[in-house]
């Protein structure tokens, strides 16, 4: 009997091995369906699909492809906007009232008509929910109490928006291109609102469909959102009710893939059509492959490191200046960020109104040593830097560590997860923080404000800009200039003011801006019309087709 | 003094019932303390990790006033003991809350991710035991031979090579170069919307529904991660089998069996392995439980949407509801497997049966 058991085991083993080989050995036929675009992309930042709540970069792209706004960025000239749902708009003489005329016969994916009432409801829910991106609208003086008056439908095709100051029209319109300005289907959302018990923190009796819209969809864009599964997949399908040209593809699928190397393998094998998170080495390999193509676009994100002014050594102006001379910009640009970034030392990214684009600093150890000696730190000092565990940040931090050492500054790198370093940064307990800053909306004010405004530098300060996070007491005149630029109607003058501010920050601030991000993508040769936009919410897929 | 037989019998019965009640009680106490311990540990971890849990709900870019308001809404400014009390109360009523990461109730998420891990772990364990046990036996019987050396090297490699490295290499070889297996993930996009899983065990579901192309696709996805996990448990199982077998083969009953003239095959498989099987069951069960926890690294490399990946993601995002839910599931799995191996133990080893 035991004999037969032995035989059994042997047969089983052999059988298993054989079947493995038979089944696995069959030729692979990896190819994505012809009407579907499959993108490999790290989408683990997505926490909600509600355009009134979402403020994450991946969500921005999905919202941009599935919803419409009143106006959109003009991709041919990103300092301008073009109408999306709005056919035309006028600004009153006092600069306070914006009147938008909607295009005729617009429909949501659900079939409901798009009316000015939907636009007004979209504004209302954003302001009343007051989630992360709401400040983009509330900065115009909207509050829960006045929003229905300040943002309202005067008739089915006309929407008026009243702001509290005579802002530069370019500022107001630029803000309306943000995803928080997406127009939702009021009728559909109202079918899904959940009751809420009003409290001190939240005064309203319903959630404006927020719970449902976290995974639901109520838009009118070129695609409709079919499904989002956290850390797995986002599926969009063509919306046949879209007012513009219909998307050539029936379906777009974003597959969550974290690793660059994995994306490259899958792209080469044809399991995905587009790889979105390629690191320099993989990007290089993809660009050499004749079956594949690559594209890139500068994005509105700058990478910088900043010196917390609570640290006595870092608070010395000479030290801040010395740090700017202790970065090997050339080496970083030609290796660590090759293809995925460009050296950029001013706070406004390329493509934004008023961008200065000067990079005066070079690695100059002698100069830095001189400055340190002036600060009484000729023998250097020790300092820590909080570094999140992702490339290229880690690599850049290590490069800075080496160059700082040449001037006797001993940099200790404290590695951490993104949220961990950020928690510390927000609490102002870091010495040096290295990270990226992405524009909140496509207007120079977004970065100007965070780099040059800090009205209350105490730990209790309410306006927690980057300047505040680094305990930097910004000179009053700078803050004033930044605020004045917001009201400057003449776009050329406005641009000049921002250029002046950038020069000042470049010379005298605890911020060392190193480079601007270039977003890259590799794609299969049969994919046609794939382009990355100037911002994360202009990466459109509704023009993409496949051979 | 003699005791009447009936009293003696009744006494024995009572003693047996007593024993039984005692073991049930002991079992309950173990379960309760384990669960309470789990709750305390997850709570503690949630409070000491240097990540602001509000960030998980709001993302990186939320303005300060929204952060403050959310912190209050989530109850993070209440005293710790009140927070712990609320936490335990919610857990006891089976309310693990909603995952902030996926916006689903935690139990819904776990029902979705656990089958993925279960399928992978089961497959891996089957491979591991199917190959590991015979290899271990072989190594023990041919102790010191080339075969033994090879088995030991195979085991050593399985023991010491990091799984993510081997996983990446095998992906490169079997997926990128040879194209034998499918891309990471559980199933091809093509089938994602034509196939409706019932149990969540895709192999079983597609087999049951007779969808052979789906079955093939699922198999091509699972074989590499399962093979790798199988290899790692094989390394462990073969090593343990070898030492258990060596121990048994040195016993006197083996000498007796040989003296009786039994065939060597029968001695090895019928006598020695049968006795070695008792501790082996524990080894296999533990390695199975280990895989059921979700092999974090393998699941990451193979984009396998299982429990390990789910908990890791949640932990990194300070999504404590999800972490608690996942931990409770793992705790339950461990307890269940322990009970199961206890039962198996009893059927395999007559001495452990209740007297």
Structure write-up:
The complex is a heterodimer of chains A (547) and B (355). In chain A, a hairpin with a 7-residue loop joins strand 2 and strand 3. Chain A has 19 helices and 19 strands. Helices cover 33% and strands 21% of the residues of chain A. In chain A, strands 1, 8, 9, 10, 11, 12, 13, 14, 15, 16 and 17 form an 11-stranded mixed β-sheet that branches. In chain A, strands 4-5-7-6 form a 4-stranded antiparallel β-sheet. Chain A has helices spanning 2-24, 57-66, 116-129, 135-138, 147-150, 169-176, 186-190, 210-213, 260-269, 280-288, 317-325, 329-336, 365-374, 393-405, 418-426, 444-452, 466-469, 476-487, 491-507; strands at residues 36-41, 71-73, 81-83, 86-91, 97-102, 151-155, 158-162, 223-229, 233-238, 251-256, 274-275, 292-307, 341-343, 382-388, 410-416, 432-438, 511-524, 527-528, 545-546. Chain A has 547 residues and is α+β, with helices and mostly antiparallel strands. Chain B is mostly helical and 355 residues long. In chain B, helix 14 runs antiparallel to helix 15. Chain B is globular, with a radius of gyration of 25 Å. The model of chain B has no long low-confidence stretch (mean pLDDT 82). The chains are: A alpha+beta (547), B mainly alpha (355). The interface between A and B is large, with 74 and 66 residues.
In short:
Chain A has 547 residues and is of the alpha+beta class. Chain A is 33% helix and 21% strand.
Approximately what portion of the residues of chain A adopt beta-strand conformation?
Answer: 15-25%
- What is the H/E string of chain B? HHHHHHHHHHHHHHH
State mean pLDDT of chain A (0 to 100 scale). 89
Calculate Rg of chain A over CA atoms: 26 Å
Total number of β-strand segments of chain B?
0
The backbone outline of chain B, from C-alpha atoms, is: globular
Summed up, the helix count of chain A is: 19
Low-confidence stretches of chain B: none
Range of helix content of chain A: 25-40%
Radius of gyration of chain B: 25 Å
Number of helices of chain B: 15
Biggest sheet overview of chain A: 11 strands, mixed
